[in-house]
Design a protein that fits this description.
The complex is a heterotrimer of chains A (222), B (45) and C (242). Chain B has one helix and no strands. Chain B is mostly helical and 45 residues long. The relative contact order of chain C is 0.15. Classes of the chains: A mainly alpha (222), B mainly alpha (45), C mainly alpha (242).
């Protein structure tokens, strides 16, 4: 199961590397959002520094929507998802593979965003380890939910508008927990960031289980 | 007190609007479906 | 009784009339018979509507969850139609909860909205989750696929709710919502009666909505399945007349 998942993730990332949608569209989009926040908050570096954790994670969630759309759009174009299913690959592997590919892209986005907020918002992380671990764990949770909802809407003509409506409210706990954890890591709020990491982990585990359990039903022939 | 009255008006008004909407939708659809396919109709008509 | 085709029946007419009577009594109880609260003053009069609607909204969403499980597990068409009906009615109740709650909060807390309040924020996200569910239901396409997707969305939403609730609680770490006065037994007799009446009236309204919405959804299915056949046979009949 895990080997198949690894193959699917590798395939998606290979497609990504060739098409360069991540580097030419998703990453610039994230950067644009960071710039827009600066305009919205009246060019006040103080405010930007204080709200860095929240702005960072809102941007990650927006980028995640694009990434999920992209990862599944690849499959629709030539009925590749059907082919994948008919080839006898375990649906759970497809789910995990897609989630891993999305998570990898999100980590890339987070690294770029991290550098951007250090440069543009003058935010320095006090606790780099916490920031890194929370970043990876949150990416996993977002990717698991994204992989589930991405497959759910993939064959709908309205998928691009429906995906954020379904996915973003579900990710509310991730936004809260990740923002708190980063608030601790960047020293902007006095909370126990490692405790919030637990919420992120719990969310990730629940969505991984949900995806593994429901993907078979979701992909089966109707 | 104004807020309380407004709350009641919106609450009851919301109920009434939704009830009217349901009834209208039901009437329109029911006229397209023969009576023997509307199971609840057999009880009183 | 009218013979115009509708979603009404004897049972729903009885429920409907009982609901109207109960609502009328509730209005009297809330505005004239009951006393203002020691802390909230007259604002408590909105509580007799707000609290039942808020609690019954969760009942509606739980029914939607049960229906979704029935569909995923047994392919129960009844469960599927029930889930759709309950979700829509739940959204109506949820929206009314938020509106009446905000209007209650303004005179009592001095603000329409407070992000620090767990129940407020959880209810708002619950509303957004099920608005997404209804949006998905709207999308035309293969019925079985759509029902399956909708059932998964409903269940994921319901599983998400406790996590949201917990995280908002840790996040805000304070709540304006008062502890349930019902349990503490501090309510006067007449106010307890009004509270009971509120649950009765809103419960009747909820069941009336559920039954009618269920029948509307049922008719939609019938029209979708048999509509084409009937249209064809009507066309043939027209042809024969000419």
């Amino acid at each position: 199961m895990l080997r198949d998942a690894g193959r699917i993730a590798a395939k998606d990332l290979r497609i990504e590397r060739r098409s360069r949608v991540l580097t030419t569209q998703v990453l610039p989009f994230a950067l644009i959002v960071i710039v827009l926040f600066a305009f919205a908050l009246d060019a006040s570096t103080d405010a930007l520094r204080r709200f860095t954790p929240g702005l960072f994670w809102v941007t990650v969630l927006f980028a995640a929507v694009l990434s999920v759309q992209r990862i599944f759009a690849v499959e629709v174009e030539d009925g590749a998802l059907d082919a994948l299913r008919l080839s006898g690959v375990d649906p759970a592997s497809i789910f995990l593979g897609k989630a891993a590919a999305i998570a990898t892209q999100l980590v890339v986005v987070e690294v770029l965003l991290g550098l951007s907020v250090v440069v543009f918002y003058d935010a320095e992380p006090d606790d780099v380890v916490l920031a890194a671990v929370a970043g990876v764990v949150a990416a996993g949770g977002v990717a698991a939910a994204g992989s589930l909802y991405g497959a759910l809407v993939v064959n709908l003509r309205v998928r691009d508008t429906l995906l954020p409506v379904l996915l973003l409210p579900v990710l509310a706990p991730v936004l809260i927990a990740a923002t708190r954890a980063y608030g601790d890591a960047f020293g902007t709020s006095a909370v126990d960031g490692w405790a919030w990491l637990g919420v992120l982990g719990l969310f990730g585990v629940i969505y991984l289980l949900l995806g593994i359990l429901t993907y078979g039903v979701l992909l089966e022939e109707s | 007190m104004g807020y309380v009255v407004a709350g009641w008006i919106i609450g009851i008004g919301g109920f009434a609007l939704y009830a009217g909407y349901l009834l209208r939708r039901g009437r329109r659809l029911a006229s397209h479906v023969p009576a023997d396919r509307r199971r609840w109709m057999t009880a009183d008509e | 009784m009218s013979t115009r085709p509708s979603t009404g029946s004897t049972v729903t007419r009885v429920i409907g009339i009982a609901a109207l009577i109960a609502l009328a009594l509730l209005l009297c109880a809330a505005f004239w018979w009951s006393e203002p609260d020691a802390q909230q003053g007259d604002a408590v009069r909105l509580f007799y509507l707000h609290v039942p609607v808020a609690i019954l909204e969760y009942v509606a969403f739980i029914i939607a969850g049960v229906g979704s499980v029935m569909y995923l597990w047994k392919r129960s068409v009844f469960g599927d139609v029930m889930a759709h009906a309950a979700a829509e009615v739940g959204v109506v109740f949820c929206a009314l909860t938020l509106i009446t709650g905000s209007l209650w909060g303004r005179p009592t807390w001095g603000t329409y909205w407070d992000w620090g309040d767990v129940r407020l924020v959880t209810t708002l996200i619950l509303l957004l989750l099920f608005v997404g569910y209804l949006a998905l239901r709207q999308v035309p396409g293969d019925r079985h696929t759509r029902s399956k997707q909708a059932a998964i969305v409903a269940l994921v939403a319901l599983i998400d709710i406790p996590i949201i609730n917990r995280s908002v609680e840790w996040w805000a770490n304070r709540t304006l919502h008062q502890r349930s006065t019902l349990i503490e037994g501090k309510i006067e007799d007449i106010n307890a009666f009004a509270t009971f009446l509120g649950f009765l009236a809103c419960g009747l309204v909820l069941s009336w909505f559920l039954v009618h919405r269920f029948r509307v959804a049922w008719l939609e299915r019938e029209v979708a399945t048999h509509g084409l056949e009937r249209a064809l046979s009507e066309r043939r009949a027209e042809g024969a007349e000419v």
